[in-house]
Design a protein that fits this description.
Elements: E1 5-14, E2 17-27, E3 32-37, H1 43-51, E4 56-63, E5 66-67, H2 73-77, E6 80-83, H3 95-101, H4 104-107, H5 115-127, H6 143-156, E7 161-165, H7 173-188, E8 192-196, H8 200-206, E9 209-214, E10 217-223, H9 229-236, E11 243-247, E12 252-256
Parallel strand pairs: 3-8, 3-9, 6-7, 7-8
Antiparallel strand pairs: 1-2, 1-4, 4-5, 9-10, 11-12
């Protein structure tokens, strides 16, 4: 199943405090839309509003034309999955347990995994180089290892829209590369991905579009052009005035000047 994510005139916040005003954009199947913004710009709050963790003050969130505000928690969970920045280190809960719990919205909490389900989990874990984590206790994993298990669960929920909040913040270099390559493959299969990042370098490397948040709204919404570093630098300087974007035959990378 594929579906677009449509945000229309969205405003949300905490209590009477609004984080941003009337944001609108659409993310389509096959896209990796990367949210960039300084601390406090509302990136994580936007993901929470889309997911339904905080109430909307106005506007709408639609996936495949369906307004999420009118759906039950279970029906909403069948359309959108969120990978948080970190999951609790709960003792007595294995990677298998955590992944299986993520399948409850579609299967029900009392439905046992089939052999087909277990084979799919094993195959996906191997692709992410995370198979060894399935039988380990979450409390015995590093933050980065729990992050890989969290990503594995999010992918296996198989919703048309995937929201990720700093998915590589605690990963080592090797697993970071695996994660972003897998996300590109998932997007190519027709998933719609909305991802929060702090670092513009991986945003340029794996994103297809940049959405920049600033001063309570969207200050730029542009496709990523890896062949036009100067154009990307001009866009990113709206957030990071001293940034420099370089293009080499191997990768795009960014740095700051004047330090």
């Amino acid at each position: 199943m594929t579906a677009s994510l449509e945000i229309r005139d969205l405003a949300a916040g905490y209590g009477r405090r609004r984080i941003w005003e009337q944001i609108s954009f659409t993310a389509c199947p096959g896209e990796i839309l990367v949210l960039l913004g300084k601390n406090g710009s509302g990136k994580t709050t936007l993901l929470r509003a889309i997911q339904g963790s905080i109430p909307l003050q106005c506007g709408s969130v639609r996936i495949g034309g369906k307004d999420l505000s009118g759906l039950t928690v279970r029906r909403r969970a069948a359309l959108v999955t969120t990978m948080p920045q970190e999951i609790p280190a709960e003792r007595g809960l294995t990677g298998w347990d955590f992944v299986e719990m993520g399948l409850y919205p579609s299967r029900g909490p009392f439905a046992a995994l089939t052999e087909k389900d277990r084979a799919k989990i094993q195959r996906t874990a191997e692709k992410f180089s995370a198979a060894a984590l399935l039988d380990r206790d979450l409390a015995e994993m590093s933050v980065g290892e729990r992050q890989m298990v969290s990503l594995l669960r999010a992918v296996l929920q198989d919703t048309p829209v995937l929201l990720l909040d700093e998915p590589a913040s605690a990963l080592d270099f090797g697993h970071t590369g695996i994660l972003f390559r897998m996300l590109q493959r998932i997007a190519e299969e027709g998933k719609t991905i909305l991802m929060v990042l702090h670092d513009p370098t991986p945003a340029l490397q794996c994103g297809t579009r940049l959405l920049l948040l600033q001063d309570g709204g969207i200050c730029a919404d542009v496709p990523v052009d890896r062949k036009a570093p100067e154009a990307m630098e001009t866009v990113l300087r709206r957030l990071y005035p001293e940034i420099c974007v370089h293009d080499t035959p191997l990768f795009c990378y960014t740095e700051t000047t004047g330090i």
